[in-house]
Each structure stands twice: as C-alpha cells, then as structure tokens.
Design brief:
This protein is of the alpha/beta class. The chain has 2 domains: about 150 residues, D-Maltodextrin-Binding Protein, domain 2, CATH 3.40.190.10; about 150 residues, D-Maltodextrin-Binding Protein, domain 2 (3-Layer(aba) Sandwich), CATH 3.40.190. Strands 1, 2, 3, 4, 5, 6, 7, 8, 9 and 10 form a 10-stranded mixed β-sheet that branches. Helix 1 links the parallel strand 1 and strand 2. Helix 2 runs parallel beside helix 3 and helix 7 crosses helix 8. The longest helix has 14 residues. The chain is globular, with a radius of gyration of 20 Å.
Length: about 350
C-alpha cells in the first residue's frame, strides 16, 4: 500500500517516518529521533533513511513541504527549530539559508566526498544527487539531428509554437541564471522574451513529458529525471518522447543539484552529521542511485538508470554555488512577463 506524504510509517525495521506537518511546532519528534525537513519527491530520501536506520539504529522523522516553504520555516523557527537535516530538491533554498548564516559547517570528510562544484561555497551544504537539463522530443515529429544545437536557439522564429517549457519551475529558474552568467543579462532577457513569444508555458514538468509523447508539441525543455519517471511507469519502449542531451557546455545542459545541510540550531547535531556522512558515502549513494532517477554525485558510484554516462554530459560550467538563490532569474522573468 502506498503511504501518504502526510502520514508515513514503514512496517518492519522500526523506522519512524511519521510526518510532523500536522504536529504542534517545536521538537515534536520523540527523543533521539533525527528530524529531516524534506522537499524531495517521495522515494529516494525514504530509502536513504531506512538504510541509515538499519545501519545505525537512529530513528528518522520527516516534515515534508516545498523547499522555499521549509527554508522559511527554518528561518521563522530560529533557535527553536526541530530540523536536524534540510534535504532540498534544489540548491537555491540551501543558498538562501546559507546567506542568512542559518547553516552549520559540515565536517570536512562530508564535503570532500563530493566534487566542489556541487557544494556550498562556505562548506555548509553538500550536493547529493543531480539531474541534467535536456530537450525532450517526439521521435515521430522531429529527428534528433534536427533539434536546436543550443537552448538559446529556441528564441528564434523557426521554433515558434513547437516547444513547451515551465517558467515557474525552480530548476528552470536555475537555468535562467546559467544563461545570464554565460551569455549576459541582456542576452538572457532577450532569450526569455523569445521563449514567451515562441513557447507554450506548462505548469508541471511531468505534463510536458506527456505532451511531447502525445505529439502536442515537438519538444520540451525539461530535466531527464522527469522522463525517467514516466518511462519507469509506462515502459521506455512505449514512449514516443525521447531524450536529447545538448552538451557543449550549453546553459541548456545545466546540472541541477539536490543537497542537504544541517541547520545551525539542529538539536541532534552529532546524529545529523552521521546522516550527512552516510548520504555521501558509497553505500548511501548506491541506495539513492537505486531509488531515484537522479545521478549520484560521489565519484565512482554509477546510476543504474542513467541514460548517458555522467562523465560524458559536457554540462554548463555554472556551479550550484554560482546559481545562488536564483533571485536574478525571477526578476528577469517578471520583467518580461512570464512569471
């Protein structure tokens, strides 16, 4: 039976996964329980927590919400937060807390396990998994060798009405920052203006996968993990939607990072550090690789679902730390009227 995100419990093994969303504010988890504020989709972090408890005997409780909401909650709770770990689907929320000095420094062996470009500049958050931006295309409507060579090309008139994008997605805002950093602010503004004129805005990333598959649009700007999720459910061979990696260090080949941090006022710091260490260990990364469509970031751990070897992606050079909180991207989108 699939359990709801508002009330979680895993039978067997004694793992406490009861959501704290409906509980009173404060340290609601039972004594000695590690509390994770989690914005990841259901599955990977639960698998990691189950493996961690089996290995250490430390119980885990979850509070689930979107990353911005959880970050705001940590700010509001201050030194009374019950959060021991903040596990964010996108790095922008981690940067927001880092900028407010609300994250604790991580042990050196934790940050050293992951390449520096996926970690916080102040060593107070660490990347755990990543996904790549791609172009999804309908194989019956367009050949892969006819796809745009750069994400920037979608602003050209020849692509009018042919593609979908989700301007309000957190990951898309990160890509806007990558465009701005690689091409300049004016070029990014012109590009967004072209997307507004040419593209079809969708509110959900999974909906774009399905729209491409049905032939409603020829292609879509999306992350590869959304295609993987649909392919896992429906069978990859049944889909007309296919995945194209742009590469060439293009902004449209940006890697977006999921990561974790320990809030500055975490009540169980020692246990939180053990969880962080486990998440980036070879064992923990293998657990995540099996449970998610994302790519593990520890060198040497290979995702069984990866469509293309991580080393051959040739992604955008813009790092997670350089993305920052993506506030400039939101300003640009609002300036051109797409958010």
């Amino acid at each position: 039976m699939m359990l709801s995100r508002s009330r979680r419990a895993v039978a067997g093994g004694g793992l406490l996964l009861a959501s704290l969303l409906g509980a009173a504010p404060g340290r609601a988890a039972e004594a000695g329980t590690l509390t994770i504020y989690n914005s990841q989709d259901e599955g990977p972090v639960e698998a990691l927590a189950a493996a961690f408890e089996k290995k250490t005997g430390i119980k885990v409780a979850f509070r689930d919400n979107g990353a911005p909401a959880l970050a705001r909650q940590i700010v509001d709770e201050g030194d009374h937060t019950p959060a021991d770990i903040f596990y964010a689907e996108y790095s922008t929320a981690l940067v927001t807390l880092a900028d407010k000095n609300l994250l604790a420094p991580l042990p050196g062996d934790v940050t050293a396990a992951i390449p520096a470009q996926f970690n916080g500049a102040k060593h107070d958050w660490v990347g755990v998994t990543a996904r790549s931006f791609v172009l999804l295309f309908n194989r019956k409507l367009i050949a892969e060798d006819k796809l745009p060579a750069s994400i920037m090309d979608l602003a050209k008139p020849e692509w009018a009405g042919k593609f979908a994008y989700n301007p309000r997605a957190a990951a898309f805002l990160e890509m806007v920052v990558a465009v701005e950093k690689q091409k300049g602010t004016e070029a990014a503004k012109a590009w967004l203006t072209g997307l507004k004129a040419n593209g079809k805005a969708f509110p959900k990333n999974t909906a774009m996968v399905l729209a491409v598959d049905r032939g409603e649009v020829e292609l879509a700007v999306n992350a590869d993990n959304y295609w993987l999720a649909v392919a896992k459910e429906r069978g990859a061979d049944t889909l007309d939607a296919r995945v194209h990696y742009i590469g060439n260090k293009d902004p449209g080949a940006l890697l977006t990072v999921s990561g974790l941090a320990i809030p500055k006022f975490a009540p169980h710091r020692a246990e939180a550090e053990r969880f962080a260490a486990y998440a980036v260990s070879e064992e923990g990364q293998k657990v995540l690789a099996e449970a998610a469509g994302d790519v593990p970031l520890r060198p040497g751990v290979v995702s069984p679902t990866a469509l293309k070897p991580f080393a051959s992606l040739d992604p955008s050079p813009v790092s997670a730390a350089e993305i920052g909180d993506a506030a400039s991207a939101l300003d640009l989108e609002r300036a051109v009227g797409i958010n």
